[in-house]
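Question thread 4412

I'm putting together a teaching handout and wanted feedback from people who do this every day. The idea is simple: show students a protein as raw sequence, then show them the structure tokens that encode its fold, then repeat with a second protein so they can compare. Below is the first pair exactly as I plan to print it.
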Amino acid sequence: MTKKESFLQAMLQCPTVSEAAKMAHIARSTAYKYMNDEDFKAQLARAKAEVLSGTATFLQQNLAVCGKELMKIVKDPKTAPAVKVQAINTVFCNAKALTETADIVEKLTEIESKMKAQVK
């Protein structure tokens, strides 16, 4: 794996460029050089979109399980009504938002690729 590939993987795991540079064992200046490279930025955007899409898919696949567990909580007479509502709201709102975001990122990535192809 090249240093650039290591840095790309680190960018998917770290919250900052500095932390990703440390994880990839490269200088911060090198990291920022990569971050200013259009091809690298495109690769990073695609990789982030894939991670986001994969996470959304995972959550979508497990919504039924979450729904069943939530229904246990909802049906349990010992559970406070506010807890029931919060549990239901949290899972479904987050899943909806993540799914919408993944779809938008995927569509934007496709649009960017098509636009770059037209320019070349």
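The second pair follows. I'd like the answer to focus on this one:
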Amino acid sequence: MSNGTLSEGDMAPDFVLPADPDGEVKLSSLRGRPVVVYFYPKDMTPGCTTQACDFRDSNARITAIGAEVLGISPDSIARHAKFRDKHELNFQLLADEDHAVADAWGVWRRKKNYGREYEGIVRSTFLIDADGRIARIWDKVRVKGHVDQVVEAIEALAG
């Protein structure tokens, strides 16, 4: 599968982003284990809250397999901290305020909502294997049931 920019089997573009609560995260430093990178539009919105809480509720299963979850949006670290605290999130949220990483990953695109066109994050999830390659891409994610699909893919990847 592809999102137009990246395809399964490609090396995941590396990044270093500010992280809540741990300072910063460099993707390539996480090699050796699967990583779920999910891009979402905005903290504190209904769909993004549901998705984050689904990842929170499945995170014990994900970490038991040896994988890690990273959520990325253009929100600030301060907003991420409020979001994390309010919903007791148990994984890191990364701030891509200039959307450079979202651009590099092909998820910053033209969107339409109620007849209005604007640029923003298209909800997307990437499963990165232990070697840093993209194992799965979910583009234009529908939140309901999505995290279960991701967990199944991690389990299949882990063998």
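Top answer:
Good format. For the second protein you could add a caption like this: Residues 36-158 form a domain with the Glutaredoxin fold (CATH 3.40.30.10). Residues 2 and 142 are 16 Å apart (CA to CA).
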